[in-house]
Amino acid sequence: MTETPLLKELFGLPLAITLAERIGAVAPAFPAKAFLHRMAELLPPLELKQRVAAMAAALRASLPDPYPEALAIIVAALGPVPEERAAMFADTWYAWPLATFVEQYGLEHPHESLAALHAITQRSTAEFAIRPFILRYPELTLSTLDIWADAPSFHVRRLVSEGTRPRLPWAPRLPPFIADPTPVLELLERLRDDPSAYVRRSVANNLNDIAKDHPERVLATAQRWMHAAPPDRERLVRHALRTLVKQGHPTALELLGATQGAAVALEALTATPERLPIGGRVQISAMLRGTAVTPQHLVIDYVMHFGGANGMLRRKVFKLRAVDLAPEATITLEWTHSFRQLTTRRHYPGRQRIELQVNGVIVGAAEVWLIE
Predict the structure, then answer these.
(1) Strands 361-371 and 275-277
(2) CB-based contacts of 237: which residues, under 8 Å, 6+ apart?
(3) Cα dihedral value 11, 13, 17, 19, nearest 10
(4) Residue 135 burial by CB count (10 A; 0-12/13-18/19+): exposed, middle or buried?
(5) pLDDT tens, 164-190?
(6) Residue 2: pLDDT band by 50, 70, 90 thresholds?
(7) Residues 6 or more apart from 330 whose CB is under 8 A from it?
(8) Following DSSP, what letter does each residue of 47-93 receive, concatenated?
(9) What is the edge-to-edge ordering of all strands in the sheet holding 313-325?
């Protein structure tokens, strides 16, 4: 079976060649050979975002010195807008270094740079590149995003939401929006019923970000949005509340229809094997019995307490499933959890605790041990 390449490998010399070909087609004086020689030297030891930044820096050194002249070449090299797809990227990775070019070198020319990001995001994404403009020129950028919320392209509409996420992964945070998310919430109101699922998912992710600092504001928004909500908006709200649900927040659980004070008995909870090597998988099985006299809606998660390098446990909640449980009925849950090493999560030998959480309440636990 062919292994999926690492994301950073997509930003190697072949992509640099694509960039050189595109720019050379609209600017024949572009020093393609020198640019590619520089990329061949620089890229191999670099990680993903370092590679993107290196390409942007090499482009800046290779294009005309006045930024507006260089930017015009960048925009011309984009070519026609591709047919819209369900998501970004695909065969348009070349646009990410171009967005980074604008991010790194365009702050003194906000109007031209924002127009370029509008074009670039229709090929890839400008969710990272727009953030310095939000911080430097909040009034101009927010008024621009307000206009873009009605754009024909769902890629542009998604940028309105994704670019304003206070805690966007892989990106610097937006402290003004962490302190006061009002401007962001006003934009999200415009996009809550967007026809594109791609945009609606971004809205949900943005609300989930805001909930980490302002849970009550997000819950108030969710309560209002759930009134006479169509199915797509209900799904949006459910996704937006996922962190609060994992935390067992009672209002969030109630909004999702979870039974308050769920009455269940844990009949069994096992994890096998009890000892396994790092990189192995544990099989977990649980049986719950309803002890209420009426049906119950249960939101079931499991909580992993990972042993750290210092022996302290680190907590992370994983979604399991939502079920309706009849009186005195039982339900059996079976799932596996991998202890494979990840770039975002390292595993260490020692005790690992597994807890079952039902409607925000821990109902039982088991333990396994990781060994070298």
Answers:
(1) parallel
(2) 204, 222, 225, 226, 229, 255
(3) 30
(4) middle
(5) 999 999 999 999 999 999 999 999 999
(6) very low
(7) 267, 287, 288, 289, 290
(8) -HHHHHHHHHHHHHHHS-SSHHHHHHHHHHHT-SPPPP-SSS-TT-T
(9) 275-277, 361-371, 350-358, 296-307, 313-325
- Computed over its alpha carbons, how large is the radius of gyration of the chain? 25
Cα–Cα nearest to 265, from 333, 361, 363, 367: 363
With tokens 């990781």, the residue in question is 370
- The structure tokens listed for 284 are 């977990």
> pTM of the predicted model, to two decimals?
0.87
Q: Which two tokens stand for residue 202?
A: 């971004």
| Dihedral-angle region of residue 261 (phi above 0 means left; psi in -120 to 50 means alpha; beta otherwise) | left
- Classify residue 41 as exposed, middle or buried by CB count within 10 Å of its CB (0-12, 13-18, 19+): exposed
Pairwise CA distance, residues 360 & 293, whole Å:
21
Cα separation, 349 vs 258, in Å, equals: 37
Question: What amino acid occupies position 37?
Answer: H
